[in-house]
Amino acid sequence: MAKNQTPTQNNNVSAPKKSDKKKVALALQGGGAHGAFTWGVLDRLFEDGRFEIEGLSGTSAGGMNAVAAAQGLVKGGNQGARDSLNHFWEKISESSRHSPLKPGPIDRFQGKWTMNQSPFFVAFEYMTRMFSPYEFNPFDTNPLRDVVKELFDFPLLNKTIFPKVFLAATHVYTGKVKVFGNEDLKPECVLASACLPFLHRAVDVDGEFYWDGGFIGNPVLFPLIDNCPTSDIILVRINPITRPTLPTHARDILDRLNEITSNASMIREMRAIAFITKLIDDGKITDGSLKRLFMHDIAAEDEFQQLGFSSKLNAEWDFLTHLKEVGRNVTDAWIKKNFDKIGKESSGNIYEEFM
Q1: Hey, is 51 helix, strand or coil?
Q2: Is residue 210 classed as helix, strand or coil in its secondary structure?
Q3: Among residues 295, 15, 27, which one has the least CA distance to residue 163?
Q4: Judging by DSSP bridges, how do beta strands 232-236 and 294-298 pair with one another?
Q5: Per-residue model confidence as pLDDT tens digits over 285-310
Q6: Threshold 0.85, pTM exceeds
């Protein structure tokens, strides 16, 4: 059965030389096309040039951003990472060009990125509730599979120890989290981390079956804590924690449940981190056996509160680049406000946000 231990890192590649850059680890949430926001966040961080990424933990779209960024860093440094991410999202948009899942005329008239008024999406939604992907997709067609196999250099990633990459998937039989590290990575691992069970068949990785990691770890933080020397973790969130209004329509209720379940595991880890941090700060743990963490949070709650689940399936280039720009702008503001806090203190109040 699946194991939930953090994978041992490959030691065949030399560690990076000492750097004066701010050392951080990145935890990237998943959420379909909303991951283009994270693309913008990473693009701005790499453009800045003052950050050194020791590790990336990601789930679903966050995992793909992590793999694209890591591969780019290894091949071409910060600019290589930016180019790799841009190429990945271009391919995602191209692969969906002929998909009928696009905003309908009413959605466009209302100036929304959702597909709630699209006849094709409504029919698709009904079909996925009545039939499984084993029934409506007998040939297991998955355009994402082609993108992953074409773009990612897994032999390179397998022998890379810096940056470290961790992808989370949900083991179907046990319901436990499975974390794939650099030496484990192959197309099936990436697809497993992004496998929505009502859209795609469970992914077979070495005889074990997995669904999207967002059900149990979105993203997982413990591999970064255990395996990265840095005490600074930047969490990039794309699922709103709060909403200002009560959902009363069926679709709104389902959207809110999706957000709550997608955030649940992350909130539990953040609560544990907040609890241990308080024990350290209050002097109740003084032997140095636990790492004192500095947590940072980059998010755009207002932007994502306007969106629902259907927009996570909207891979139109205009939407993806819109989210990228939102991510860049939010990150630019975050850097200006919080850069000097890296290595010294948390830039957000995790007690207020997650406790």
Answers
A1: strand
A2: strand
A3: 15
A4: parallel
A5: 888 788 999 999 999 999 999 998 99
A6: yes
